[in-house]
Amino acid sequence: MKVLGIETSCDETGVAVYDTEAGLLGQSLHSQIDLHAVYGGVVPELASRDHIRRLPILVRQALAEAGLDIGAMDAIAYTAGPGLAGALLVGASVAESMAMAAGIPALPVHHLEGHLLSPLLAADPPDFPFVALLVSGGHTQLMAVTGVGAYTLLGESLDDAAGEAFDKTAKLIGLGYPGGPQLAALALQGTTGRFKLPRPMLHSGDLDFSFSGLKTAVLNVVSGPGWQAEWAADLAADFQQAVVEVLTAKSLAALKQTGLKSLVVAGGVGANVQLRAGLDSATRRRGARVYYPEPALCTDNGAMIAFAGALRLAGGARPEQAPGVRIRPRWPLAELLTPAGG
Ligand code: ATP
Ligand code: MG
Ligand code: FE
Predict the structure, then answer these.
(1) Does ipTM surpass 0.90 in this model?
(2) How far is the CA of 140 from the centre of ligand 2 (A)?
(3) Is 121 inside any structural domain?
(4) Which DSSP string corresponds to 321-339?
(5) What is the DSSP letter of 286?
(6) Does residue 81's CB lie within 6 angstroms of at least one atom of ligand 1?
(7) Which sign, positive or negative, has the C-alpha torsion 14, 273, 154, 140?
């Protein structure tokens, strides 16, 4: 089964062709970073317009790389939410109309399910069940995953997401947008230990997180008396260490609570080298194992949407035949319908 996947939930336009037999056959991606950088964050209206401009070109590219035309597809999967309403509408409209023209089904996909399943695209994928740590720009969640569509929320951030904390802290330190990767790069040049930052909710006894206090602690440092700009790398290193410590401790606690031995990490912060190092060593000591998507598939992309759509269809999902553009800008993963019997 061949599925064309379309991702437009935020500031990346991604398209891919996934074949359940042959794997990923074509991928195209355009990041709008340059477009939004001057504003210091994503401007929704600009994002929507750029998706409109890029999507036809990217669809042609992905199909060309696959050496297939749209007639060879069995379905078109698109991100229906959560995300920016206008941006989602672009992907949904293009997917639904292309599917209608080609006489194939269009399947709305949950963006976080795409992230969550993306580690299964790796060369050495984990088996179900596993614990998933989803750390993206908008979400920080621990989930027990027993199969496609079978997700139980174990804990989540009560305020900022991990990626959001990285981005906001980067801004406080004076770095450009998007801050997460820049802060991580700066942290590599710093040494930890100069600043005593909190480890929010480390000992809360549950699997929830909180990152806004950490950001405030950084604000207090940089706006306090005696702050010296040359300490920025050390502050970045201490901030990163605090986040990594909390994410690692709670992931281990989730493995312990569920009795599972596999941890899957997904979402943009999953590209963080320090987080990977921390999780690798902590899990190894406990006889567990961590699985990641390749770094390029941690942030938003079309491949994870094509893949999630294909798994859903292979699992018996029956897309609605009624024409219509279906988006859901706010859509908790816990509300995903589990396939019957699953
Ligand atoms: P969501 O998926 O929750 O809707 P999103 O799609 O914006 O949010 P992703 O694309 O998964 O999120 O990830 C983007 C986030 O990952 C940003 O907050 C970015 O700063 C962060 N990020 C990317 N690379 C790194 C890194 N190396 N270290 C830390 N954070 C990173
Ligand atoms: Mg993005
Ligand atoms: Fe995302």
Answers:
(1) yes
(2) 15
(3) no
(4) -S------SS--GGGSPPP
(5) T
(6) no
(7) negative
Number of helices followed by number of strands (H, E) in the chain: 10, 10
Mean pLDDT of 273-297: 96
Residues 241 and 160 in one domain: yes
Q: Which residue has the tokens 């998007």?
A: 178
Ligand 1 mean position to 226 CA, how many Å? 32
* DSSP notation for 29-53: EEE-HHHHHTTTS--HHHHHHHHHH
The dihedral sign for the CA sequence 121, 122, 126, 132? negative
Q: Angle at Cα 118 formed by Cα 145 and Cα 215, nearest 5°?
A: 85
Residues 59 and 202 in one domain: no
What is the domain count for the chain?
Answer: 2
Spacing, Cα 178 to ligand 2 middle (Å): 8
Q: For residue 68, which amino acid is it?
A: L
Q: Are residues 217 and 284 in the same domain?
A: yes
Same domain, yes or no: 179 and 103 = no
Mutate which of 136, 143, 240, 276 for ligand 1 pocket (most atoms within 8 A of beta carbon): 136
- For residue 165 and ligand 1, the question of a CB distance below 6 A is answered with no
DSSP type of residue 104:
-
Give per-residue pLDDT as tens, 60-111.
Answer: 999 999 999 999 999 999 999 999 999 999 999 999 999 999 999 999 999 9
Average pLDDT over residues 217-235: 97
- Assess whether 171 and 236 both reside in one domain: yes
Q: Pocket of ligand 1, candidates 13, 139, 166: which has the most ligand atoms within 8 Å of its Cβ, to mutate?
A: 166
Q: What is the pLDDT of residues 13-53, one digit of tens each?
A: 999 999 999 999 999 999 999 999 999 899 999 999 999 99
